[in-house]
Amino acid sequence: MFDLSEIARDLVVPGKGILAADESNHSADEKRLAQYGIATGPEMRRQFRDMLLETPDIEKYLSGVILFSETLDQKDDEDGLFFPESLKARGIIPGIKVDEGLEPFPNSPDESITKGLVGLAERVAEFKSRHHPGFTKWRAAITIDGDRLPTTMALVENAKRLAVYAFEVQKAGMVPIVEPEVLLDGNHSRLRSREIITKMMHALVAALEDQAVDMSSVIIKTSMALTGKDAKNAGGKTDTPEEVAEDTLAALMESVPASIPGIVFLSGGQTPDEAIANLAAITKHAKEVHAPWPLTFSYARAFQEEAIIAWAGKQENVEIAREAFTKRIKQASEAIQ
Ligand code: 13P
């Protein structure tokens, strides 16, 4: 019997973190390829993942990679291995996104709820038996709008679904990453973001306990406490990394028990420089406040964007794209040390 808590600890091993490369087919096409004038479809998505995942030496910085289901069945150019096998061969743990995206929350349609509990047990069993991923991810998205949103109902329902998911995944022998992303969109203050992260984490931890989820084998993925994008763009004050670190850790220290083996951060629309500077400040402040959990990154956009622009969908650009990607994952690895 494999030890799930060992996989969880391996994911947050010092100096390494996670690459999120689990955009759904639609998001990969629209938000990663078409947005930069690159052709779309299964073969372009495969080349896009090959550009990132087959970068030499990424195992120095990455403990795991989150994949979308389509990528599990695609092969790399170099050795013709399925991507999960290719990652494993380099000591990187493959993971899989198992939620089925967002839909409007019927009780409060300006908010979202995450789909995917129907048939979840069968789906995770199938992923597990075909490609043996070590972990999975489920993302909820939390919208802030003044004092109006989020509603407690939306937080509680998303927390419940995250917990049911986590329980099913542990039963299937994989580590669940539970991700309630507090969105950067909006004109809220950093303090409001801190307040909502705290509230969401309280709801999440209570739901995980209610579901009897094993706390030693679940990883929490969170946003940083940040001023909303619209407030920032409207000329509001930019958060300093020290402010972000203080408010992010205050939220987590108040709500997340020490039994959680690790917390990972999403980049959430920050620039690569911001996401890395904020991570470095959080790491530093975590030592000062004696945060009990290892902390690391689990970024998609902050790692991918410059590489995609350099690549532009062309084979002859793969090398410079991989340089851009390596530069960022190396900086993130340095930021957490
Ligand atoms: P970003 O780093 O782009 O926020 O993505 C992380 C992620 O996995 C979102 O679900």
Strand content: 15-25%
Average the pLDDT over all residues and give the rounded result: 97
Q: What is the element string, with H for helices and E for strands?
A: HEHHEHHEEEHEHEHEHHEHEHH
Number of helices: 13
CATH superfamily: Aldolase class I
Helix content: 40-55%
Spatial strand order of the main sheet: 1-2-3-6-7-8-9-10
Quickly name the level 1 CATH class: Alpha Beta
Any descriptors?
alpha/beta; 16% strand; TIM Barrel; 47% helix; 337 residues; globular
Q: Topology of this protein?
A:
Elements: H1 4-11, E1 17-21, H2 25-33, H3 42-53, E2 62-67, H4 69-72, H5 83-89, E3 93-97, E4 102-105, E5 108-114, H6 120-131, E6 135-142, H7 152-171, E7 175-182, H8 190-210, E8 219-222, H9 229-233, H10 241-255, E9 263-265, H11 272-288, E10 295-299, H12 301-311, H13 318-335
Parallel strand pairs: 1-2, 1-10, 2-3, 3-6, 6-7, 7-8, 8-9, 9-10
Antiparallel strand pairs: 4-5
Helix pairs in contact: 2-3, 7-8, 8-10, 10-11, 11-12, 11-13, 12-13
The structure holds 1,3-dihydroxyacetonephosphate (13P).
1,3-dihydroxyacetonephosphate binds next to strand 10 and helix 12.
Task: Please characterize this protein's 3D structure.
The chain is an alpha/beta fold. Helices cover 47% and strands 16% of the residues. It has one domain: Aldolase class I (TIM Barrel). It contains 13 helices and ten strands. The chain has an eight-stranded parallel beta barrel, surrounded by seven helices. Strands 4-5 form a two-stranded antiparallel ribbon. Helix 7 crosses helix 8 (190-210) and helix 11 (272-288) runs parallel beside helix 13. The model has no long low-confidence stretch (mean pLDDT 97). 1,3-dihydroxyacetonephosphate binds at residues 20, 139, 179, 266-268, 298-302.
